[in-house]
Amino acid sequence: MTTKRKKKDAKKAPGTGIDAAAVARVFRESGKPLGEKDLLRQLGAPRAKMHDVLAALDELLEAGKIIRVRRGFGLVESMHLVTGTLEISRSGVGYVLPEDKRRKDIFIHPKDLGDAWHGDRVVAAVTRERKDKNHEGRIARVIEHGVVTLPCRVVKRMASDLYLCRPTDPRHTMSFMVDFLPKDGGRDPMADDVMQVHIGEKLEYKLYSGRGLELLGAQGDVSVQERLVKLNHDIPGPFPPKVLREAEALPEQPGEADFAGRKDLRALPFVTIDGAKARDFDDAVYVKKRGRAFTLFVAIADVSHYVPEGSALDKEALERGNSYYFPQSVEPMLPERISNGLCSLNPHVPRLAVVAEIDFTAKGVPGRTDFYPAVIESKARLTYSQVNRALFLGDEDERKNLGKILPLLETAEVLARAIHEVRAARGNLDFDLPEPEILFNLQGEAEDIRPKAHHFGHQLVEEFMVAANEAVARYLTEREAPVLYRVHPEPDPAKLEALFKLLATTDMATKLPVKPGAGDLSAVLRDASGSDVDFLVSRLALRTMMQASYSPKNDGHFGLASTCYCHFTSPIRRYADLVVHRSLKAVASGKGAPAKLASKLPKVAEHISRRERVAMEAEREILKRVTVLFLADKVGREFTGVIGSIADFGFWVELKEVMAEGMVRLSSLSDDYYQHNAERHELLGERTGRRFRLGQPVSVELSGVDLGRLAVDLTLIEGGEAPLAVPSVKRKGRRRRR
């Protein structure tokens, strides 16, 4: 802008409002930091307008657009400063996730965190730029703390009503001096109790005042652990009264008026197949044989019929994003009156559904599809274990119990296996890694953590759900309707290259393509299955995977080897499915999806993807907490296991006797100094040549657990390979990794 133009604008300024946008524009045009008087002069405003300038500055400071400097204020975007959210890992390092999505995350060393906490909105100064890695930085300013309350563990009583407390989340490293007065009839807090604390003022470095809001109970109680995990991750609790009123206003059962305009499929033998503890049944299936071909009917609860867009129920469901599952409780996306009642496809009662009807050839190739609203009536509520016993274990009693349902299941199995073969041929990834299942006694205490059973009873339902999801995505895409796709990017190129480079040094080398790429991963997993490198390949291949998310743009789903995929089959517990239902019903009825839907999808996709990550993090944390509680009385016991992950300070061991994981730190090994080879995923002794690698069996002793650190500490008893000839290892400094 020329000097003349600036003067012209300056003359206009007194007659115009001075707001944050105008002040930000002056900062950009000046190209340097400015003080209050500088701004007033460049705006051409009289001294009487200083109040407006100060108000605009406060607004820009609050938004993180500017930052205080020695003699005024500087524009963040012009000062190598980045505004974002700070995430701190349990190791203590931090990353600032920029609000500008074009920027990479910024690494923050623990010494550069200052007074910032995990979850804070901050301004970070970039101190070191790196081409292929994350830039490094330091926290320049905390805009606002991400939390105002925290669940904290009572360390000790300091005075009559004063307690020293520390957060239960190990990512928060500060302490609190907490005032707490028990409510009528309540007891005084004791050491290792957990209370919810409202954060007060800073007293000194990493010490703050606080006010106790509620005593949650003893930290050894699983229900208390669930409660504090929900608080740590901001998991929604009870529904607001307005939402509950809307739910209560709905009928207990659908009436004849609801059946108008729907196909009546109540005569068809639909069945639901779920886990034994499931209470919300949002999908039912029926398979009809047509000569050598099949027709698959997938009926999904018509939640959108009862939850109109923009209603209190809808807004709350969007805010939650999904249901949240814990070992002993659930925080549902919709009130139980809907999720477990009116919309649940319970047996022997009429229910409204959206049906995907798909023809398949004898070889499992999909053909004609049809989608329509219907009314169905499930004929049986089956469990995965029932189906497994009847179909795959040949249990005669179970087969008799199923009666007329058995032929339907046998037909369904044939189709499911055919569909599975088609997906396997196109490159579907199947890691088949065990998931933990926590078993509780009558007192609510964990008595075992074992691998969750997974068999073709589960696979049967999964094949049909994937087929329905793909069919809906293709249908909407072909009609250019807005779709909330489920996308999964190709693997991380650097990690994939490292995987193939490592496999080239194993017996798998002869089976690798000349130039292996992401498309070869499925074949590599199949070739490694059952071999000596099965564990190595499956774990490292899984670590190459990117995170799946929701997007209005169809980028395909790598893990399923699907070019077009969305979520349609679980509208009771996922908001994404509810969005897809609305679009599908509008298009199938000939009306076309509302134009405003497409404009809303980017924000909806970003929000529900974020809420899904929150649910996953909370699920992982509660599993770690229950694992630590379960192992607390087993310190000193010996276990066997395999090395599941390796770092420069030790290795993690996956235990066999119980589905848990612990760490052997190199500081506990006194026989040698060990070097970490990241490319080969191994630790090598400098003197002995003793080697620790992924998948290697070891014997360990449980030496301790720490609920505060969520740590399971192990001591090595036996394990590690020593070659016949000790190799010459170039030393990089004699020190034991800690």
TrEMBL record:
One GO CC annotation: cytosol
Subcellular location: Cytoplasm
Domain S1 motif: 636-717
Molecular functions per Gene Ontology: exoribonuclease II activity; RNA binding
EC number: 3.1.13.1
Gene3D superfamilies the UniProt entry points to: Nucleic acid-binding proteins
Enzyme class: hydrolase
Reaction(s) this enzyme catalyzes, per UniProt: Exonucleolytic cleavage in the 3'- to 5'-direction to yield nucleoside 5'-phosphates
Pfam families per the UniProt record, alphabetical: OB_RNB (PF08206), RNB (PF00773), S1 (PF00575)
Annotated keywords: Cytoplasm, Exonuclease, Hydrolase, Nuclease, RNA-binding
Keyword hit for Nuclease: yes
Keyword Plastid part of the UniProt annotation: no
One GO biological process term: mRNA catabolic process
Membership in a protein family: Belongs to the RNR ribonuclease family. RNase R subfamily.
Record-linked NCBIfam families: 3_prime_RNase (TIGR00358), RNase_R (TIGR02063)
Function: 3'-5' exoribonuclease that releases 5'-nucleoside monophosphates and is involved in maturation of structured RNAs.
UniProt protein name: Ribonuclease R
Organism expressing this protein natively: Solidesulfovibrio carbinolicus
Chain's gene name: rnr
